[in-house]
Amino acid sequence: MLDRDPDERIYEAFAAGAEEALPALVRRCGAALLRFIHQCLGRGAVEDVEEVFNDTLLAVWRDVGEYDPRRARFRTWVFLQARWAALDRRRALAREAAAGPLPELAAEFSWAQFLQLDLVVALEELSTLDRQIIYLCHYLGFGHREIAGRLGLQVGALDTRLHRARQRLRRSLAAWHPRGVPEGSDG
What we know:
The structure is a single chain. The chain is an all-alpha fold. It has two domains: 1-100, Rna Polymerase Sigma Factor, Chain: A (Orthogonal Bundle), CATH 1.10.1740; 109-187, Winged helix-like DNA-binding domain superfamily/Winged helix DNA-binding domain (Arc Repressor Mutant, subunit A, Orthogonal Bundle), CATH 1.10.10.10. Helix content is 74%, strand content 0%. It is built from nine helices and no strands. It has helices at 6-15, 21-41, 46-63, 74-99, 102-108, 111-124, 128-139, 144-151, 155-176. α1 packs across α2 (21-41). The chain is flat and about 50 Å long.
């Protein structure tokens, strides 16, 4: 008889509120999760990576009731929680950086990095579902049918949501950069 998926057993432990669930998750995918968070944060400090890791574990523990095994594997859902926690941390870091003196900030960041921060803010203005669609399509490279299946949508509905989300992103970015990206920039 085949053993069940270890991730499924960990999910069941979380769902039951078992104390061993958290250490089991850390043993199972902690190192991969830390690497993933580090990649999401870019050149984030170790403290930022650790903070996002802890935020992710807290979100998994708190929100395990929202996990739907029909939409994704438990491990995938955990990594999506990490991605959203990392985006939250990047937004917080961007706010902290924006509060600092602009001349230093301007010297430190390229135009492309400013656009990246603006994109993170613009993405936050989208609904959770639209952010997931954009992320799955543009960052993970999933096809429309696969995304629709994972999110329980019809392909036509997904196409419409994706089109409208892209339009909202364009409008948001155009509002912040009405003249577009300067010539010769790396953006």
